[in-house]
Predict the structure.
Amino acid sequence: MTRGWTAFVLSVALAVAGCASSAPTSVLQQAERFGTATALPPADTAGSKLLGTVLAERRSLREFANEELPPDVIGQLFWAGQGETDAAGHRTAPSAGALYPLELYALTADDFAHYLPEGHRVERRGDSTSLQGLADLAFGQEFVSSAPVVLVITGVQARTEAKYAAVAGDLMNREAGHVAQNILLQATALDLVAVPVGGFDPAAIARLLALGPGEEVLYLIPVGRPG
């Protein structure tokens, strides 16, 4: 290992350790980690662009305008990833056995929101520090924290293990890919820019965001208006 690479690894390790030590312990100790759930504006199930056009326009872009995204836009991204599409509770992305092990969150400069597909609702808690620390835990990829919102895809493997045992982890990871692509295409359809991020320390981010036991971080998707 070269000296330069060793220094880089050490710097990343120190950054991760620092963020983990400043995790919201008070949140971890609370029985309820979010506030009361509120309804999001209704999702747009029609759209204004043809699918072929959206597929052709999608690109991974990392420069974002310094402009917040309104609740209806974030809600539309949530719905694209995990929204319910019928009375039986089926969702926009396929899931093995319809067990739905995935959860969706949105982290902004001010708060942390958790999507509740049933009823198209969201629950929030104030958070003014985690977005700045997220880039450190993504190995110094600064664009992660420069986006106005980062969608976080997590998974609870135990939900799928009940039926699929040893292959549950593989199935859950594949489902995260389905959801990520839905979100990326929805962002493109809304004339937003987005990029999927897979390089990060999942355990440190789970601690930073005070996720529940057994919940793994699978994907980060920074989203915003074009910079």
Q: What stands out?
A: Strands lie at 38-39, 102-107, 111-116, 121-126, 149-156, 193-194, 215-224.
